[in-house]
Here is the input.
Amino acid sequence: MKPLVSASLLSCDHGRLAAEAASMESAGADMIHLDVMDGVFVPELTFGPAAALSICRAVRIPVDGHLMVEIPDGQIEGFAKAGCRYVTVHAEPCPHLDRTLSRIREAGCLCGVALNPATPVEAVRWVLPVVDLVLVMTVNPGYGGQAHIEHVRPKIGILRRELDELGRHEAIVSVDGGVDSGNAALLRRAGADMLVAGSFIARSPDRSSAMEALRAK
Ligand code: DX5
Ligand code: ZN
Here is the structure.
């Protein structure tokens, strides 16, 4: 099956986020990936719930709030109310990850957990029975347009196999960072169900062709 494509808006025009999201939807994106950064967990500062609200209103496809923030629990409600379908937190700043994921579900969203490149799969092993999405970072978070880190790819297959062994076939393994037409097919073969792409799509003259290139075998 072809991978789902989740378009990150990080490399888009931040003054036209709703229009950019609508453009990504028209070009065939399956999801909008909203990179929320607090300037603490990662150096950059990006979007808040108000921006998420205008983006969620501009599209019909799901929006995933990727929270690269030091205190995720404090942000769940805002992005849930804004209309995000998924809220994805990083395992690293969550000492009570299972409870944080429950809070996302209680807020009416599907829950995701992200792993930085150096973070082992073991960090999420005991929440695999309850997550809806696992986000494998193939860049160190904080910026778009970075080089893809190839040596973390084995995590993708390990996670896909572990989720399948638990019967969690509907849970999504998503890959985020430096994804382009040169590595997309390999990532799919490695077990990725979804590919997040920002600069590859935003910089392409034809966004629809760029997304098709990510889905090509
Ligand atoms: C990085 C973000 C990624 C980023 C992907 O911290 O989490 O979603 O926007 O951008 P590209 O595809 O340009 O690496
Ligand atoms: Zn992201």
